């Protein structure tokens, strides 16, 4: 997380108002909800996991066992079960 000096980005009147509530502390200002992105969308990680899970489901449908998939993908059998029995396609 990048920190900024408030006096460099905020008007003086706003700083004075904020100082009524907090002084000399770190204050986190969250993004607006409309700016939120789901985990992994920027890095591509979400897409990689979605493709992996689709491959796991297809292998399961084709006859691979839970244990075989767990060994192949280095996941626990419980995690494989969550993937293959979820309704996400």
Shape: rod-shaped
What does the main sheet amount to? none
Radius of gyration: 23 Å
The separation of the N and C termini measures 35 Å
Instruction: Return the structural class.
Output: mainly alpha
Uncertain stretches of 5 or more adjacent residues: none
Average pLDDT confidence is 89
SSE series: HHHHH
Number of strands: 0
Percent range of helical residues: 40-55%
Total helical segments: 5
The fraction of residues assigned to DSSP E strands is under 5%
InterPro entries: c-mor_Regulatory_Protein, Homeodomain-like_sf, YraL-like
Protein name: Mor transcription activator domain-containing protein
Organism: Neobacillus rhizophilus
Characterization of the model:
The protein is built from 5 helices and no strands. It is mainly alpha-helical and 89 residues long. The two termini are 35 Å apart. It has helices at residues 6-9, 12-19, 45-61, 66-73, 77-85. The chain is rod-shaped.
Write the layout of secondary structure elements.
Blueprint: H1 6-9, H2 12-19, H3 45-61, H4 66-73, H5 77-85
Helix pairs in contact: 3-5, 4-5
InterPro entries: c-mor_Regulatory_Protein, Homeodomain-like_sf, YraL-like
Protein name: Mor transcription activator domain-containing protein
Question: Key terms for this structure?
Answer:
89 residues; mainly alpha; c-mor_Regulatory_Protein; Mor transcription activator domain-containing protein; YraL-like
Give a quick summary of the entry:
This is Mor transcription activator domain-containing protein. This protein is an all-alpha fold and 89 residues long.
């Amino acid at each position: 997380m990048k920190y900024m000096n408030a006096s460099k980005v905020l008007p003086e009147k706003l700083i004075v108002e904020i100082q009524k509530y907090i002084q000399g502390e770190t204050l986190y200002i969250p993004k607006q909800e409309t700016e939120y992105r789901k985990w992994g969308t920027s890095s591509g990680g979400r897409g990689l996991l979605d493709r992996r899970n689709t491959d796991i489901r297809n292998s399961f449908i084709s006859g691979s066992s839970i244990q075989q998939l767990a060994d192949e993908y280095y996941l626990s059998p419980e995690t494989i079960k969550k993937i293959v029995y979820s309704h996400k396609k």
